[in-house]
Structures are given as C-alpha cells and as structure tokens.
Specification:
- The structure is a single chain.
- The protein has a single domain, classed as Rossmann fold.
- By secondary structure, it is an alpha/beta fold.
- About 35% of the residues lie in helices and about 15% in strands.
- Helix 1 crosses helix 2 and helix 1 crosses helix 8.
- Strands 3-2-4-1-5-6-7 form a seven-stranded parallel sheet, with helices on both faces.
- Strand 6, helix 6 and strand 7 form a beta-alpha-beta unit.
Length: about 230
Amino acid sequence: MTSEVRVRTRIRPKNGRKFILVANSKGGSGKSTLATNLAAAYARLGFATSLVDCDQQRSSLAWMEMRPPMAPPITAVSGCAEVGVPQLDWALRVSPDTSRVIVDSPVAMRDQRLYDTLQKFDDILVPVLPSAVDIRATTEFLKEVYISPGFRTSNKRLFVIGNRVDKRNKYFHQLSRFLKRMGSHEVMTLPDSYVFLRCADEGIGVADLNDSARYEEARMSMLKIINAIETKV
C-alpha cells in the first residue's frame, strides 16, 4: 500500500475547467506515462481530475484499474470506440464538477481528425524520446499541429516534454536543441528512471510516493510541467 505524501506547491485549484491533451503520432513516446502521472499529480494537488483514454491500447484505463483505493480519486473515462456500441463524445461523459481533464490521445491523428481534436483543448503536451528517430517523427507531428487551423487560429499552448532523459547521455543535448528550436521557453523533461515503470504497475504516479527524497527528481519534474500549464501567459 502506497502512503500519501504532501506535495508542497503554490498551485491551488481554481474555478474553470482546463482540457489538456497528451499526444504524439509516434508510438512509444510515453503518452500514457505522462498522462497518468499528470492526472495523479493534479489529483494529489486537490483538483477534481478526469483521465480520458482514447488510445486503443487502453494503457491509461488499465492503470486506473490498478489504482489503490486510498489514492486521491481520479475519474476514468473511455474515449475508445467499441464495435457495436454507440460512441458518445467523451467530453459529454466528463463530470461537470471536473476541473482538470487529461486526455491520452490515439496515436494516429491527421488532417480533419487532428483539427477536430485540437478544438477541444486548452493545452497540448507532446512527449518525445531522446533519439534521432523519435525527434524526426515528432518534428513531423509538430508541423501538422502548427499548421492545423485548430491550433494556428487559437491561443492554445503547446509544450514539448523530453521523456526518459539521462542528462549524461549525448542525446540529451540533441533533445535540448530540438526543444529550443520548437519554441519551448524551457526544457522540460522526465528522467530516465525505473520509478515510472513501478508507477505504471501499481496504478500510482510519482506524486503518490511517500519516499519523495529518493524520487525527488521525478516528482519535481512533474510539478514543473504542471506549473508551466497553470502559469497564465
């Protein structure tokens, strides 16, 4: 059983709902890792949080099924189409009391589907692994986002998050240059740590861990992302 830990931060729940999309057309980028940890951190901070899984792999829903009953509550919403079942817009199934909606997107989003998806969101988070292959694929996805009317004609914000980053690795510097080219105001990363595998297996986030000193880097990396999202431009 995971003990609770108090997260010290200046963030406090605010009125109004925020929709946050975690997306990348490149499979294996860490969408579910980022989405589940983001949802756990928001819930730990006292936000009424919903986690919507639109990916056919349903990794976020599987994580929710393992979530300990004593952990801060998160509402699970399936956004996946099922054969023979009428699929309502997932946004209609999110409780009106929810203040933060985190969406784990499907991998394949292009053209009209990308436009329709972007219309719903306030912020877009794009995780990327520090490899040449992943950076190239993510660059193409970011180009599609930037030219989409759903993003170009709005005041939505986009954050690129380096995932599984070892700052001692040469690819960290390549990733840092890439993030700065993409217009990121600061390089935000999640460390290459087994703690994220542990969290995936136990239905928790790094914000839920009681041995916070051991996992301080991972915990603070999530808070840095949330602070960026919650900071008004």
